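Listing S7. Sequence submitted for prediction.
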Amino acid sequence: MLDYFLGTILILVTLGSVGHILLFKRDPRAALGWIVLCLALPGFGAVCYWLLGVNRIRTRARGWQTRGKGLPRFAHPQDHAGTRRYAASPFRRENFRSLLHLSNAVTRRPLLGGNRITPLHSGEEAFPDMLQAIREGRNRIFLSTYIFESNTSGRQFVEALREAAERGVDVRLLIDALGEVYCFPRVRRLLQGTKVRCARFLPPSLTRGIYFNLRNHRKLLVVDGRTGFTGGMNIGDRNLAGRADNPARVVDLHFKVEGPVASHLEEAFREDWGFATGEQLELADESLSPRGNAFCRGISAGPNEDFEKLRWLVAGALGSARRQVRIMTPYFIPDRTLITALNTTALRGVTVEIILPAKNNLPFVGWAASSYLWELLQYGVQIRYQPAPFVHSKLLMIDGEYVLLGSANLDPRSMRLNFEFNLEVYDHDLCERLAEHFDGTWERSRPVTLVGLDSRPLTHKLRDGFCKLFSPYL
C-alpha cells in the first residue's frame, strides 16, 4: 500500500513538473532535456528541475516588486514630445527612427535633449571630478557602486562623503552586499558613527534568500540631482591605471553626466534604495537646464523588468547600423541571438569591430569567450585583443552617432542576472571623442584570426570548450 502511494506521488510530481516545463521553458532544447531527465529519473529529475531549472531570480524579484518594496513598475511610454521638438540629424534617418521607436517601446524613461556627456579615463581623471562634485554638494549626494575598496582612493571618497554629511547634506551610500567583501576593512565600518546613511543591496537573508546572482552592478553618483557620473568604474586604487607599480591596475572609462538626464540616474538610485531599505524617497520636482547637445536616456535593466532590455536594445542597435559597429567590452560571452545579430550585420556590409582584453582578469571567462570567436570571424566580424593592463571599458557605437555606455557587459550575467544601468546617447561630438580612443586602442591591439584560433594547442581548445559549457552561468 505504501509503495502504491509513493509511486502515485512520484507520478504526480513528475507529470506536474513536465507540465510546468511545457508551459514556462522558452528554449525547446532546454525543455526537452529537462523532460527527459524527469521521465528517466522520476522524483530525482523533478527535484533537480525545481532546484536548478526554475528561474527564481525573476520570480522572486517580481514578488518583491509587487509587494511595494521598491522597484516600482512604470507604464511604457509610446512617444515623447521631446523627441518631436528637436530635429536632430540622427532622427531624420529611418534606421535611427526605428531604433528610437524600439527604445520608446521597451524602456520606461523618455529620451531627453540638452545633455553633456564627458568621458573620463580611469581613476586619474574620474576620481578628482567625482570628489570635487561631492565636495560641492549642497542638498543630497547619492552613491551606488558594486565594489568600494577601503584603500587610499576609497578612503578619499569616505572622507569626502563624511565631510558632506557633517555640513548637512543628505548623503546615502548603497553598496552591493557581495561586492563589499572584495576588501577589508569594509567601507561601511569606516563610515560607522558618521552621518552618512549606508545600505547593502540584497545581503544574505532568511526571507529573501542567499544569492550569488541578482547583484547590483550599477555605478551611480548623483549630486544635487544635477551632476552625475556613471559607467563601469568601481572605486579603488586598482582604477589608477597610470601607476606602473600597481600590479592589479585596471583601465576603465567613466562618464560625467550633466543636464536633464541626470534625473534618470537619481531615479535609478531612489528605486534601488527603496528596494534595499524599504524606504521610499520622493523624486524631486526640478527643472534642469540644458548643458549640451546630447540626447540621452537612462536605462535600468535587471531581472525585475518586463523585457530583457539590454538584449533587445543591442540587437536593435546592430540592426540599425548602416556603416560601422564598434564594440569594446571586457567580458564577451555572446548568446545565439547576439551571434546571429553580429554576423547578420557584418554580412550586410557593415564594418563590425570588437576589442577584447588579451588577458582577462577572470581567466575562465576569457577561455569561454575564445571558443565563440571563430563563429564571428568566419563571417567577417573583426576582432582584436588589446594588451595588458586589463581593460574594463564598455562601449557600443553605431555609425558615429549613437553610443550605448554604462555598467553592462556582453555576457549572460549582465543581460539576465544583474541590475545594470546604461545610457543610450545620440551625440556626434561624443562619438568622435570615443572613436579617437577606439582607434588608438585598435592600432595597438593584436588581430584575432581563424588561423590563430585553429593553431591553439589541443589542450587549450579542450579547456576553452569546457568553459563554454558553463557560459550561461559565467
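Caption to Listing S7: primary sequence and predicted C-alpha cells for the chain studied. The chain has three domains: 2-54, 115-277+286-292, 309-473. The mean pLDDT is 87.
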